[in-house]
Specification:
CATH topology of the largest domain: Aspartate Aminotransferase, domain 2
Number of helices: 19
Shape: globular
Number of strands: 17
Helix content: 40-55%
Distance between the termini: 48 Å
CATH architecture of the largest domain: 3-Layer(aba) Sandwich
Length: about 475
């Protein structure tokens, strides 16, 4: 019996153990190959990263942190295994479990590589303190709040409906329930950040924390201006760069390093790594508060297998190929934005200089004047093979009736889509959206937006998408 179980552990693959799960995974692999994915918060995780993610580090617990000495010195010294293990055998470490000596190496290596990637001419890698233990972006943000704020403190961030994140104070999220939230938006005419108005709001409410960083606002912020506002009102400046972190590393998005007191980001968007999150600071005392806020404050055992995957992802992030990819991501998005506008579609916020854009659907109306909404638009695009998501835009009041759809270029750029493909996609997207006949009906929960499209138009669009993909292959 024991031998049979050992065979299950070491010899049998997924198809033998659970063919149903294997089949569903195969379906998902096929979906990702056969569709054009324009979700800006998704990217393709490289094979080497996925290999590390599935390593035997999955098997262990490692509550606590690596030895402090492993966060100092050169990477070469860290990887002197005999030297480091001699210290481990003599002094132990800061973990609550034994058997974590190699977890210390992999977590420290990932930290070093991240610090190196975010170092600037003004800020050395050794002056950047890195925490990679948060289980998600939301957990990272919650840990920042817990480290620096008390319940009912005032926190100021961008409103969810115009580009902020759920964890920046939405009433449906823990952040909105636990703290007093003041939200800023965009100028009603330009749909861009108005720093004078943000400053006036900050000086009026004196927030404990000022948040900059967005999920659907497509323009890079002025970090220096945010720093000035934070200093004037006495706030801690919190930069959430979950979306553009990869662009920051490659130099195609302004870095908050040197301006923000604390920075968070996820590693599965433009970083193109595993699903994980990171917290950065350049202040040693703040780093200590963050450490204890993450563990034991927010969570218990970290996912050590993700440390390995993060280490690989940030090895890749140091390459010229990675920098070229990030450059192409931004270029493709600008081309797509321009092409969509040339097709007669309106962009919320007036355009983009990052990896994402949002289409304003309100001018597309049915016979009764009812405007197209994001949910039916995204559904019909998905039927044609183009994957997007609905998104609120300035003027919207409810996410269920969002008037926009959000597009991003990380995934398609990784698949080597270029200028020609962006222009072809813009034509297909415009042909679909402008031929949808929007309507709504009243359901049990209120107004439900829907849309219809002629079968022939949809079939033509599906064929166009299929051909774009086949030409790339």
């Amino acid at each position: 019996m024991i031998k049979k179980y050992k065979d299950l552990l070491d010899k049998k693959d997924l198809s033998e153990v659970d063919s149903d799960t294997g089949l569903i995974i195969d379906f998902e692999e096929r979906r990702q190959k056969d569709k054009v994915i324009l979700i800006p918060s998704e990217s393709i995780c490289p094979k080497a990263v996925r290999e590390a993610l599935g390593s035997r580090f999955t098997n262990i617990y490692a509550e606590g942190y690596p030895a402090l000495r492993m966060n100092q010195g050169e990477e070469k010294e860290l990887l002197d295994f005999e030297y480091q293990l001699s210290y481990y055998r003599r002094y132990g470490n800061r973990r609550f479990y034994k058997g974590c000596e190699y977890a210390d190496f992999i977590e420290s290596l990932a930290r070093r590589r991240i610090a190196k990637c975010f170092a600037t001419d003004r800020t050395r890698a050794e002056d950047i303190f890195v925490n990679i233990q948060p289980l998600s972006g939301a957990a990272a943000n919650n840990s920042v709040y817990e480290a620096f704020c008390e319940p009912r403190d005032t926190i100021m961030g961008m409103a969810l409906t115009v580009g902020g994140h759920l964890t920046h104070g939405s009433k449906f999220n823990r952040s909105g329930k636990r703290y007093d939230i003041v939200s800023y938006g965009v100028d009603s005419k330009t749909e861009r950040l108005n720093y004078e108005r943000i400053e006036k709001l900050a000086l009026r409410y004196k927030p404990k924390m000022l948040i900059a960083g967005y999920t659907s606002y497509p323009w890079a912020p002025d970090w220096r201006r945010f720093r000035e506002i934070a200093d004037k009102c006495g706030a801690l400046l919190f930069a959430d760069i979950a979306h553009p972190a990869g662009l920051v590393i490659a130099g195609f998005y302004p870095t908050p390093i040197g301006y923000a007191d604390v920075i968070t980001f996820t590693t599965h968007k433009t970083i193109c790594g595993p699903r994980a999150a990171v917290i950065l600071t350049t202040d040693r005392e703040k780093a200590k508060k963050i450490e204890s806020s993450v563990f034991p404050g927010e969570q218990g055992g970290p996912h050590v297998n993700k440390f390995a995957a993060i280490a690989v992802a940030f090895k890749i992030a140091q390459t010229r190929q990675y920098r070229h990819l990030q450059k192409r991501i931004v270029e493709n998005c600008k081309v797509l934005a321009s092409a969509l506008q040339n097709e007669g579609l309106k962009l919320a916020y007036g355009g983009t200089n990052t990896h994402l854009l949002v289409i304003d659907l309100r001018k597309i109306k049915g016979r009764n004047g009812y405007p197209l909404k994001g949910e039916p638009a995204a559904r019909i695009l998905d039927l044609a093979g183009i994957v997007t998501n609905k998104n609120t835009i300035p003027g919207d009041e409810a996410t269920t009736l969002a008037s926009g759809i959000r597009l991003g270029t990380p995934w398609v750029t990784q698949r080597e889509f270029g200028v020609l493909e962006m222009k072809k996609l813009a034509k297909v997207i415009a042909a679909i959206l402008t031929n949808i006949k929007p309507f709504s009906y009243i359901g049990l929960t209120g107004e439900i937006p829907r849309g219809k499209i002629d079968f022939e138009i949809l079939q033509r669009a599906k064929e166009d998408v299929r051909k774009i993909i086949e030409d790339i292959r």
